[in-house]
Amino acid sequence: MDGRLAGKAAVITGAGSGIGRATALRFAAEGAALVLGDLRPERSARTVADIRAQGGDAVAVDGDVAEDAYVRELIGAAVERHGRLDILHNNAAFSISGRVGDITDEDWRTQQRVVLDSVFYGIRAALPHMIGQGGGSIVTTASGAGIGGEYGLGAYAAHKAAVINLTQTVAMEYAEEGIRCNAVTPGPTATEPMLRWLADMPGGAEEFGRSALLRRMSTPDEVAAVIAWLASDDAALVSGVVVQANYRVASRRPE
């Protein structure tokens, strides 16, 4: 690694597994000092331990990103520990399957709080610190479902669409303060939950991967590489962009 995040302080939510964990490891390898959040302390503790074993700087402040008070605490921990916040990666999310007519009020609101509200809370908490220091980079894990919809994921898709719009609005509103705001829409990615879900589907991961632009599943490390680029000064001219990383080109009703 070339150390392009050296001297930068970063916060990552959902850092205990999948894309969040891969991004935390990549950021650390690139030289960033990290404050990591996850709903399950045992998962973030493993990520922190792995980073420290490689000589990196990481601590965990765990909690529920659906709670504004916790997100403020997480952001505050980075500022208190490092005196600044250079990068915020909003990654935490989850989905509940079901056609639109079957979505309950509770399922709709629960997904909204985790998928959309958490991103708003994180950005809102980060902005004053980034403005005060003259800039920063915000990168959010969005979804192709937020661009073209997804069968059986109506609530999740709607909230991810709102995340994309919020990303573009923040990029416009805070450009003069030196803040860049971007999103990534990962295609089918070989995370543990995804692979477990696909294990029971006809054709499994190989067949599902063919729906992606590159006709294969992405790995969490590959997605993390895109996020690290967006977070770094190598992407200094990039803001308000939704990077379609091996975007899924077909969304169809499951067989």
TrEMBL record:
SUPFAM superfamilies: NAD(P)-binding Rossmann-fold domains
One Gene Ontology molecular-function label: oxidoreductase activity
UniProt entry tagged with the keyword Oxidoreductase: yes
The keyword Chloroplast is annotated on this UniProt entry: no
Keywords linked to the UniProt accession: Oxidoreductase
Gene3D superfamilies: NAD(P)-binding Rossmann-like Domain
Signal sequence, start to end: none
CDD domains the UniProt entry points to: SDR_c
Membership in a protein family: Belongs to the short-chain dehydrogenases/reductases (SDR) family.
PANTHER family cross-referenced by the UniProt entry: DEHYDROGENASES, SHORT CHAIN (PTHR24321), OXIDOREDUCTASE UCPA (PTHR24321:SF15)
Name listed for the protein in its UniProt record: SDR family oxidoreductase
